[in-house]
Amino acid sequence: MGVELAALHWIYVVFIFLIIGFMVLRRDTTLVCIIGIFLIAITATGSLSASVSSIFNSFVYAITELLSTILVISIIVAMSKTLTATGINDVMISPFSKLIRTPALAYWTIGILMMVISWFFWPSPAVALMGAVLLPVAIRAGLPALGVAMAMNLFGHGIALSGDYVIQAAPKLTADAAGLPVSQVIQASIPLVAVMGVVTTLTAFYFLKRDLKSGRLTATTGLSSVAEPKERLQSQSNLLSDGQKRLFALLIPLLFALDVAAMYILHLQGGDATALIGGTSVFILLLITMASHKNEGLEKTTSYLIEGFQFGFKVFGPVIPIAAFFYLGDAGFTKIIGDVLPKGSHGIVNDLGVALASVVPLSNEVGAVTLTVVGSITGLDGSGFSGISLAGSIAALFAHSIGAGAATLTALGQISAIWVGGGTLIPWALIPAAAICGVDPFELARRNLLPVVIGLAVTTIVAMFII
Questions:
Q1: Transmembrane stretches, by residue range (predicted)?
Q2: Which pTM does this prediction carry?
């Protein structure tokens, strides 16, 4: 038998619905989360000063939990800026331009390359790394800029970011909210990410090919009024000689390949894997900066790091308050507010799950559909990340009711949230790829809509059988 639900539990439920409601309305959820934290704290402790302190403590707890993720993304972005500034990225990607002879080869080559690079650099920096070199090549091969943007979106912001197997930022957030080990969520997500990726990219390619053949899609379809992207992004840098660029272009993939091998051999996951990638990125950043900027290397290193940290905290700024709220649902409660849960309670989410199971016997089908819908709604803010804690939290709640499938439901919520909000459907989240390809973000979102919806439907059905 579970603990009897108290005011604490009902406040948590009410604020989950409020957060979802605000996301649907495309309004910021920070204020709602802070009020929710305060009300839960004052209900649990009865102390005004302790409740006010809990708001700050919840932020500290959330930042502490997410710090390694924020840092590694900041460092990787800083490193990617050095690659762009020195022109090393041009050399790294140029061999692949020889493969691009037809629109089909352009779509799949750019997509697969984007996916691989995004695993290590995250999609936004990867778009910048690839755009300048491969966009003109793809257009010459007959793939319109809109098709290039779709390929970068679906493979990078879709497949790579929704799985996030190397940096592990997404599974860390959802696993923490669901009270599961990161490795469990990663393992459960592999078949779902594969199904979603294959269905969506094949569907998008089919529509792309059909519209190219019929003439509905041309080289100028969806182009925005901004200047040609290649003029804006092309590196004119003479900081390194051609030989040095080639050396670094070989060294960087080799170092990351060694990292992946080390992760496999030494069984490194979660924080250990993140630390290895982060340390390697710092090492690469230092090597490139000192080699390219010579005397100014010391100052430039700090400058690149500052740019990276600005990006990291800008991305995670909206995530911290919402993560702080959802950490209260599980182990974070006692660390943020104190040991003041009702007697016999195993955490707010666990209690709610047990209560839900006793009232409504939920099925695998209901659980899977609900997590896809919740994940998609949380993605409507265009972040993809700010709401995945909610998906993890609700997955834990439903898994307690169903009696199984916690990791699969968590992975499903994560995938739907990131595919919708991470940069494939929400126009303001599409801006990096749209700007680099010089296309209209709204047109790009329209092209992605049907493939992503079909992919989510098929993935949800597959999840029902896996649970």
A1: 6-25, 32-52, 58-78, 99-120, 126-143, 188-208, 247-267, 273-292, 304-328, 388-409, 416-436, 448-466
A2: 0.73
